[in-house]
Design brief:
The structure holds two protein chains of two kinds. Helix content of chain A is 34%, strand content 37%. Chain A is α+β, with helices and mostly antiparallel strands. In chain A, a hairpin with a 2-residue loop joins strand 5 and strand 6. In chain A, helix 6 packs across helix 7. Chain A starts with a helix and ends with a helix. By secondary structure, chain B is mostly helical. Chain B has one domain. Chain B has twelve helices and five strands. In chain B, the strands form two sheets. In chain B, strands 1-2 form a two-stranded antiparallel sheet. About 3% of the residues of chain B have low confidence. The chains are: A alpha+beta, B mainly alpha. At the A-B interface, strand 5, strand 6, helix 5, helix 6 and helix 7 of A face helix 3, helix 5, helix 10, helix 11 and helix 12 of B.
Chain lengths: 262, 304
Amino acid sequence: MIRALASLALLWTLLFAAPARAQETGSDLPAAVAEEQITVSSDYRGSYITVFGVNPDRRGRGDVVVVVRGPSSTATVMRKRRVFGVLVNGDPVRFSEAPSFFAVLSSRPVRQIASPQQIWRHQLDPAATAQLDSAVPVGADPSAYRAALVRLRRSQGLYQDYSGQPQQDQRGGLTIYRGGLFRAVVRLPANAPIAQYHADAYVFRDGRLISSQRNIPITISRVGIERRIHDLAVNASFFYGILTVLLALSAGWLASLIFRRV
Amino acid sequence: MIYLPIAEMPVNVLLVLLVSGGVGFLSGLVGVGGGFIMTPSLIFLGVPAPVAVATGASQIAATSFSGIMAQTRRKNVDWRMGLLLSIGGVAGSASGVWLFQQLLVLGQLDLVISLLYLLLLSLVGAMMLAEGLAVMRGRDMPTVRILKRPIRTIAHTLPFRMRFPRSGLYISIIPPLALGFIIGALAAIMGVGGGFILIPAMIYLLRMPTGVVVGTSLFQVAVVASLVVILQSTATQTVDLALAAILMLGGVVGAQLGARLGAGLKGEHIRALLGAILLAASVKFLWDIVIMPPEQYVLGGGLW
């Protein structure tokens, strides 16, 4: 209930602030996230991120693209090869910068909205964001590795793309309302890393970027026992290891004690 | 469902309890740590491989410790032998971690692990199954033969001999130390306790009586697994305390039940059963390294 009210309040401010700001700068898109802070406790099973915004064009012309990104980190993609009849993970290719989470939502498929150069420059595609770090093995195709990275991460639910209206049975997707208001809902799976996320919103018209807002922060953090365990594991790892072993030994001892009585 | 703080994923508590309970049961029954089933099962449930390996070790420690308690009451632990094996194990697991890193740099860790599993599981499994079945058919009684010990192995001829009253042995300390070292190294590389290699080696190489073998191997496995937990949580921070707690709970209860049932079973039956399990597991590894999956590319997991 409170969240719904907050969203509504956000909507109102956006609606009223929008025309003035859009006219002032011409490239500033009014947009915000409903959940600036997502907390992870022991019953966490994933979450949703909602990005609101208003298309500065009063008549709602143009295409909206919303991107939600997790932090970038290194990634390695390897290929299975057959050596003497045995499968070997070979030909590793390293990416120095690959987004750990990447969702792109658009009113139409992104390729129809923006040119390949723009997709590359504004990083509207996870493949565009991933930076190759090592040389590709002789005879191999770098784009095949890039595509494999996207495909593998997509199957884990970490890379998502939605275009057009949301489907009946799923919550994720981009909805555009009359008057230029848009709402993008991204499903954040439970396996997505706990970190600082960012949302970007863009409006393209006739293949040109006319308005944008980048780096709207979304913080995902642990709370309660989840936080305490994690902090202990990171800050006092030796003590944490001893603690785990003691727990293991006492569990074993306790079980044998109980079962002797029975 | 509970969210794991280190693995960063939710798991079904009941399912994990069931899996760890089953592995624990097997562990109590035949005296293996069960890591060679536990670690792949966790990975199958979606736990990242480094977390599965490191956290699995804590469950092995708990299970084997509760196993030791049960075996001690039946006076089935040769402490002197266990201590020697553990000294070798500590040195072995430390150098195993080093080797692990070298293989990581070479990028062939996966293959080495799969090949090691395939080789050891199928070899040991076939050996134990064959002998167990032969005894069950009533051809001859190898346990009697072992107790008489007419066969001298290398353990009896090497220098630095020592008396092991509980096992009724007078053998050199070099083979137990070396055996402990190898098991420790394998444990660090493969993410297993190593009981499934240790037990046959103790029976066939050291010629220890079958009854003492299980308890003594549990002792060494508990020491090595505890060390691996501490090493891993310090070096890689991949030990998940919440997951470990669930695994321990299922593991120790299963182990107690298994040890209870194991007391009523004959050694030959247990060995035949273990042999069959090992053979079944080796088929899975053969499948993995021979059959090309539809997805040819693989993502390097979190740490590698």
